[in-house]
Amino acid sequence: MTYRVVQWATGNQGVEAIRAILDRPDLELVGAKVYSEEKDGMDAGVLAGRPPCGVTATRDIDEILALGADCVAYFPLLTDLDEVCAILASGANVTTTAFLFHPRFLPDADLAKLEAACAQGGTSVHGTGLNPGNLSGVLPLALSGMSRSIEKITLQERADWSFYESTNITFDNMRFGRDVGDVSEEASDFLRFNSTIFQEEVALLGEALGADLDEVTAEVELVTANDDHEIFGIPLRAGTVSGQRWHWRGWRQGQVLIEIETLWTVGGEYPPSWPTPQDGWTLTLEGEPSIRAHLLTLMSYDKPLPLAEHVRAASVATAMQAINAIPALCEAPAGVRTMADLPLIRSGFGFGFATPVPPF
Question: How far apart are CA 171 and CA 118, in angstroms?
Fold first, then answer.
């Protein structure tokens, strides 16, 4: 069976999704939703660095909804619940990297609205990605199958954002380079949204593994730069925020059972008071037995590639977790389907052929 797919948003992850949709024989790209005037009217293949594919990108939401797609890959930076409900009610399933890692973390009214849209359209919605996503959801659940009992789950992420060329995300959304008072959930809609989706992931694990959590909390420790730096032409001044150490914790009776920690820096300065894990993600299940796995995404471990190619790896992985879920999602019963609900998501290519991405 072939599933007709719309790609909604064409940033770093969106273009990786378009490439995968174009390459997979069981997926057909039928539409692309963009936000900028410059992209409006462009061929979606060209947007993704491919030859023209005959699909014209548009900013018109009604035009997208009229396509009758089987699934919309919804990848905006911020979620619009009304948009998602309109897509679902129109009869298109939604796979998204933007939210819904644990929908019952939503306010009751929002969840009811979402479920009503699914019922109206006979559709399903699924939130997934890398982290939050596979590494903090799917993988802990998979590894828990080897445990008799679990005492604590911890995922620790270490990343230097200096290599991430999307400076609008680094400086505008994540607010690196700002004064300390400007970097908090209260001061930024994006940081509040970003924190919420990590809390959703903690809640998802807690529910799936019977943790019976009392609460899920968020906490951030900020550090400032000692020196001036320049990141892809953007100044990071001494005294402004150059490091964010976030903790999202699930508690029961005063004890932390689930924790996601991120150690994010910009400018190459690393606080000596912070732990110094390897780059990437370290997942630990403390229990009987205890299990630890360290993961790092690169575009190749065998081929010599420029650093810019390796930086793409996280975007590819995030997008592919959502795109590879499309067949299972389209066949799932109507409603909200979490990482704990869908079957194990596998590569759509496996050892098959995928078109190489040309250098830009």
Answer: 36
